[in-house]
C-alpha cells in the first residue's frame, strides 16, 4: 500500500511578488500552489515581506514520495487528465477521484500530496503500486 | 474432448471451440433461436456463462467446467453477477494512431500509417481487445480480458469490416439458420449440420417447429433441410464512427464501402434482441412515430445488446419504404457491446467522504457514524438523550471539525466583508465576533456562520459544514471581482474544532489550564493553550448553553479530545453526536441552512431580518431585498409545539384540511416533554393552530428554550 504520511509545514498567502522574492528556510520543500499561495514543507517558520501575509502552520496534508515508475503507474491507472509534459511542475486534480497534488520533479519522481482528511480514501483506491 | 455444463447437462467440446460452437456441436442452439453469425455481431448466441449474463458465446472460448445457461425464455436474466467479483482495473493510454480491426483492411491501414512515420496500435476483438465505445477526445474504451483500457488517440482508423445481413421474414427465429461465415466456421470446426440449403435475400419464410425443416423462397420454391445458410450481403460495422461524429475517425475497407439496403421486411422479427416484429413497427408507425429515430424509441428496435447491428439495415429499409427515401442510420451511442456493471463502473469513484482528525476516537467510543456534507460524522454515541442532558446539565464535547474555517487578511478586508455580509463588520472589535448570514444576489440565504476579528486587517470566518466546500470559491470570486486586496486561506481541512458545551464547560477549561479570567465572555475569542494545545477559543453557542469552540491544528486533535474526556470524567462528561446537537439547537430555534431553509428563503421568511442592515450602502443581495421588501410574502418559518411523538421531518402541515407547508425540523424535547418543531406556512392567513399527522400543533415563539439567552452567557 501507498505510504502516505502526515507532513509538517507552513502555508503562506501573500502578494505574488513577495512570494517570488522570499528566501525560504534551508532544507524546506517549497510548493507554489498558486501565484499567491505557497506550501512550505518543513519545521522552520518562513517569513515574507508582505505585511498582510497569512503565515500559518499547515498540518493538513499527507504526502508520499513516488518513483518515476510509480508516477507512471498512477497516471495510467488513476488519473483521467493529462499530466504536464515539462518537469519540474505542479499538477493538481483528482487522482482516483480524490483531490490531490503531484509535485513532479525533474528526475521523474514526484511528491504526492493529499488532504489528511481524505488520504485514507486515496490510499485505499490506489492500492498497491508498481 | 473436454466437457462443460450446458443448461445443467454436461456436453463435450473440441479444442478451439467457442461456447457457441460447443452447443452447436451437441445439437443445441446457444440461445433459444434466430440466425447465428458467430462473428460477435448479433445477440442470438447470448447466454449466461459462469454467472455473468449477456455473454456472446460465439466470442467466448469453451473451457472445461464452465457453467453455461440460456437466458430465461421471454424475460431477462438476473442482473446480479457471480457471487465473487473483483474490481475491474482501468488503464489509461495516450497513443498516436489506433487501428480498430485486425483483418486485411486493418493490417493494410496499419502498414500505411507506420510507413508515414506514425506509431500504430491495433485493437482486434478476435485478439481480446474489443473496442466498445468512442468519445470526443478522441477516446476509445477497450474491453480486454484483464480490464478496461481508456485510450486517448491522435487518430483513429476503423477497419471493422462488414456484418452479414440476417434474414427478416416469417420463421426467422427458428433454430438452424446460419449466415455464410457462420456456416463456414461450423464446417471448419468439423460439425455436420446435416442437409443444408444456401439461399440469398429472397427468402419468403422459414418453416419448422423449433428447428427449421424447410425454407420457402419468394418464387414459391421450397427446400426441405436441416439447416439454412443465408448469404444475403452485408452492412458496414460503423457503429463506433456513428458514436462520435466529430471525432477524426477514418473508415477503411469494407466498413467504408457503399452498400444496398435489404428489401423492406414484411413479416418476421426485425430486432431479435428486443423481440420487435414488423407488426410492432407498423403499430408505432400508425401511432404517429414516423421518423427512424422515433420508431426506434417507440418500438425499442435497435436498443438491444447488438445496438442495431442486425436490425439497423432492415429498419432503415422499412422506414425508407414508408417515406420514399433512404433514412440515415440511427445515432450510435456507447456501449457497442453489453458490459457488466463492473465494467461499466470501472474507474468510477463515488465522492470522497472525509474523516475528521477525531475519526478513530469516535469509533473507539462506539459512535454510529453517518455521512453529512461530505464527511463521516458521529450521529450518536448510543444514547442521544443522555448526550442531550450532558449538554444541558453538565458538560459535553462535540466534533465540529467539519465547519468551514477561513482566514482573510489585507488592507481592504473590512470593505470586502462589508460587501459580502449583510450585517455590519467594521464595528466588530478585535477579540469579538458576530453571527452572520450569507446572501445570494437575489437575497436568498446561502449559509451562515461567524466573523471573528483578529486585528484591524485580519479576520477569521466560519461557515456551516455543508457550505464550507463552496465558501472559498464564493468569497474569492467576489473579492477578485471587486479588485480588492485581500488574502484568503481556507483552513477547513487543516484545523480541527471541538465544541465544549454545557454549564460546566468553563470549569472544564479551567481544569485544563485556562485561567478563570482568561476565559472569553460570550462572543469573545482568544488564543489560549488548552491542555497544552494551542487553540483559538471561540465563545458562542449553537446548543443554547455556555459553549467554547476550540480550533486547533489537526495533528493535536486527538490529544485535546482525550484530555477533555479524561479531565471531564468526574464532571460526567460524555460526547454528543449530531442527533442530540440537532435537538439542542432546535430548542433554541436556530435554523440549519439547507434543512430549515429553501433555495429562495429570504431573511424575512426565516425571521432573521435582524441580521440584515439595509442602512449599509452595499452588500450582496441588498438590491433584491429592497426591491422585494414591500411585496407581500406568504411564506414564513414558524416554531410549533405539539404533544409527542415528534412527527417525521418533512411531514405535511395542513390548515382546515388544506396543505399549507411542511415540517423542516422535529424533536421530542426531553426538557419540555413534548415535541418542538420548525415548519413552513406558505399561505395566508398564517394559522395559530395547524394539523400535522392528524394531530394539533400550535404556533410557538422561538427560541423554545431560554428565550433571554442567559445560559449561553453563564
Please tell me about this protein's structure.
The complex is a heterodimer of chains A (130) and B (714). Chain A contains three helices and nine strands; from the N terminus they run ββαββββαβββα. Chain A is α+β, with helices and mostly antiparallel strands. Chain A folds into two domains: 5-59, no CATH class; 62-126. In chain A, the strands form two sheets. Chain A has a five-stranded antiparallel sheet with strand order 1-6-9-8-7. Chain A has a four-stranded antiparallel sheet with strand order 3-4-2-5, with no helix packed on it. Chain B is of the alpha+beta class and 714 residues long. Chain B has seven domains: 2-70, Ubiquitin-like (UB roll) (Roll), CATH 3.10.20; 86-164 and 235-260, FAD/NAD(P)-binding domain (3-Layer(bba) Sandwich); 165-234, FAD/NAD(P)-binding domain, CATH 3.50.50.60; 262-325, BFD-like [2Fe-2S]-binding domain (Arc Repressor Mutant, subunit A), CATH 1.10.10; 354-401 and 494-584, Probable tRNA modification gtpase trme, domain 1 (Gyrase A, domain 2); 404-490, Aminomethyltransferase beta-barrel domains (Alpha-Beta Plaits, 2-Layer Sandwich); 634-714, Elongation Factor Tu (Ef-tu), domain 3. In chain B, the strands form ten sheets. In chain B, strands 6, 7, 8, 9, 10 and 19 form a six-stranded mixed sheet that branches. A six-stranded mixed sheet of chain B has the order 32-33-34-31-25-35. Chain B has a six-stranded antiparallel barrel with strand order 36-39-38-37-40-41. In chain B, α10 packs across α15 (578-587). The chains are: A alpha+beta (130), B alpha+beta (714). At the A-B interface, β5, α2 and α3 of A face β6, β22 and β30 of B.
Amino acid at each position: 500500500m501507498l505510504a502516505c504520511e502526515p507532513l509538517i509545514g507552513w502555508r503562506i498567502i501573500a502578494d505574488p511578488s513577495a512570494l517570488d522574492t522570499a528566501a525560504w528556510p534551508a532544507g524546506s520543500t517549497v510548493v507554489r500552489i498558486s501565484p499567491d499561495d505557497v506550501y512550505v514543507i518543513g519545521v522552520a517558520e518562513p517569513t515574507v515581506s508582505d505585511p498582510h501575509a497569512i503565515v500559518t502552520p499547515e498540518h493538513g496534508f499527507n504526502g508520499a514520495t513516488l518513483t518515476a515508475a510509480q508516477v507512471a503507474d498512477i497516471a495510467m491507472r488513476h488519473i483521467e487528465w493529462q499530466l504536464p509534459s515539462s518537469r519540474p511542475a505542479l499538477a493538481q486534480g483528482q487522482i482516483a477521484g480524490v483531490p490531490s497534488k503531484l509535485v513532479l520533479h525533474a528526475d521523474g519522481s514526484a511528491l504526492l500530496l493529499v488532504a489528511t482528511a481524505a488520504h485514507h480514501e486515496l490510499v485505499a483506491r490506489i492500492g498497491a503500486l508498481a | 474432448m473436454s466437457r462443460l455444463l450446458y443448461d445443467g447437462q454436461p456436453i463435450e467440446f473440441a479444442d478451439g471451440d467457442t461456447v457457441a460452437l460447443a452447443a452447436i456441436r451437441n445439437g443445441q442452439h446457444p440461445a433459444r433461436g434466430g440466425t447465428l453469425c458467430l462473428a460477435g455481431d448479433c445477440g442470438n448466441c447470448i447466454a449466461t456463462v459462469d454467472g455473468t449474463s449477456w455473454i456472446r458465446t460465439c466470442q467466448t472460448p469453451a473451457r472445461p467446467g464452465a457453467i453455461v445457461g440460456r437466458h430465461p425464455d421471454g424475460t431477462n436474466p438476473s442482473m446480479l453477477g457471480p457471487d465473487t467479483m473483483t474490481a475491474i482495473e482501468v488503464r489509461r493510454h495516450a497513443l498516436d494512431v489506433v487501428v480498430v480491426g485486425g483483418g486485411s483492411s486493418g493490417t493494410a491501414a496499419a502498414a500505411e500509417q507506420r510507413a508515414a512515420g506514425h506509431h500504430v496500435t491495433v485493437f482486434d476483438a478476435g485478439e481480446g481487445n474489443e473496442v466498445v465505445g468512442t468519445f470526443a477526445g478522441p477516446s476509445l474504451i477497450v474491453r480486454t480480458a484483464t480490464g478496461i483500457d481508456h485510450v486517448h488517440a491522435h487518430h483513429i482508423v476503423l477497419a471493422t469490416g462488414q456484418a452479414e445481413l440476417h434474414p427478416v421474414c416469417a420463421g426467422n427465429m427458428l433454430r438452424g439458420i446460419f449466415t455464410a461465415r457462420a456456416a463456414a466456421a461450423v464446417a471448419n470446426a468439423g460439425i455436420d449440420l446435416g442437409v443444408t440449403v444456401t439461399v440469398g435475400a429472397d427468402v419468403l419464410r422459414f418453416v419448422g417447429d423449433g428447428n427449421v425443416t424447410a425454407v420457402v423462397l419468394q418464387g414459391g420454391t421450397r427446400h426441405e433441410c436441416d439447416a439454412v445458410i443465408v448469404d444475403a450481403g452485408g452492412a458496414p460495422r460503423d457503429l463506433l464512427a456513428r458514436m462520435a461524429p466529430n471525432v477524426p475517425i477514418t473508415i477503411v475497407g469494407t466498413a467504408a464501402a457503399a452498400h444496398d439496403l435489404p428489401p423492406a421486411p414484411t413479416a418476421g422479427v426485425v430486432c431479435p434482441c428486443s423481440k420487435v416484429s414488423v407488426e410492432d413497427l407498423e403499430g408505432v408507425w400508425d401511432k404517429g412515430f414516423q421518423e427512424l429515430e422515433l420508431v426506434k424509441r417507440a418500438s425499442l428496435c435497435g436498443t438491444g445488446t447488438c445496438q442495431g447491428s442486425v436490425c439497423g439495415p432492415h429498419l432503415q429499409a422499412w422506414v425508407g419504404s414508408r417515406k420514399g427515401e433512404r433514412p440515415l442510420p440511427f445515432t450510435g451511442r456507447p456501449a457497442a457491446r453489453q458490459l457488466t456493471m463492473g465494467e461499466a463502473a470501472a474507474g468510477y469513484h463515488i465522492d470522497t467522504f472525509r474523516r475528521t482528525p477525531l475519526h478513530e476516537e469516535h469509533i473507539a467510543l462506539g459512535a454510529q457514524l453517518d455521512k453529512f456534507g461530505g464527511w463521516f460524522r458521529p450521529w450518536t454515541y448510543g444514547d442521544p438523550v443522555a448526550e442531550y442532558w450532558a449538554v444541558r446539565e453538565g458538560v459535553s464535547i462535540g466534533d465540529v471539525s467539519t465547519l468551514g474555517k477561513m482566514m482573510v487578511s489585507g488592507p481592504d478586508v473590512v470593505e470586502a466583508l462589508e460587501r459580502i455580509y449583510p450585517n455590519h463588520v467594521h464595528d466588530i472589535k478585535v477579540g469579538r465576533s458576530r453571527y452572520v448570514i450569507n446572501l445570494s444576489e437575489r437575497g436568498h440565504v446561502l449559509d451562515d456562520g461567524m466573523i471573528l476579528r483578529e486585528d484591524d486587517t485580519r479576520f477569521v470566518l466560519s461557515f456551516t459544514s455543508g457550505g464550507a466546500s463552496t465558501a472559498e470559491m464564493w468569497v474569492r470570486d467576489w473579492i477578485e471581482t471587486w479588485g480588492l486586496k485581500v488574502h484568503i486561506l481556507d483552513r477547513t481541512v487543516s484545523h480541527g474544532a471541538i465544541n465544549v458545551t454545557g454549564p460546566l464547560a468553563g470549569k472544564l477549561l479551567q481544569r485544563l489550564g485556562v485561567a478563570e479570567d482568561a476565559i472569553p465572555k460570550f462572543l469573545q475569542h482568544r488564543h489560549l493553550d488548552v491542555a497544552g494545545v494551542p487553540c483559538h477559543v471561540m465563545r458562542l453557542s449553537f446548543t443554547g448553553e455556555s459553549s467554547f469552540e476550540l480550533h486547533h491544528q489537526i495533528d493535536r486533535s486527538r490529544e485535546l479530545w482525550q484530555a477533555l474526556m479524561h479531565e471531564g470524567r468526574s464532571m460526567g462528561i460524555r460526547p454528543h453526536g449530531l442527533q442530540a446537537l440537532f435537538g439542542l439547537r432546535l430548542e433554541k430555534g436556530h435554523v440549519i441552512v439547507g434543512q430549515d431553509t429553501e433555495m429562495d428563503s429570504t431573511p424575512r421568511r426565516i425571521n432573521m431580518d435582524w441580521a440584515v442592515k439595509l442602512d449599509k450602502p452595499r452588500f450582496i443581495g441588498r438590491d433584491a431585498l429592497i426591491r422585494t421588501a414591500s411585496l407581500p410574502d406568504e411564506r414564513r418559518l414558524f416554531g410549533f409545539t405539539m404533544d409527542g411523538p415528534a412527527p417525521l421531518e418533512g411531514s405535511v402541515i395542513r390548515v382546515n384540511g388544506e396543505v399549507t407547508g411542511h415540517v423542516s425540523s422535529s424533536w421530542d424535547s426531553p426538557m419540555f416533554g413534548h415535541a418542538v418543531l420548525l415548519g413552513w406556512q406558505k399561505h395566508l392567513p398564517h394559522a395559530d393552530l395547524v394539523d400535522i399527522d392528524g394531530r394539533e400543533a400550535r404556533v410557538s415563539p422561538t427560541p423554545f428554550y431560554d428565550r433571554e439567552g442567559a445560559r449561553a452567557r453563564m
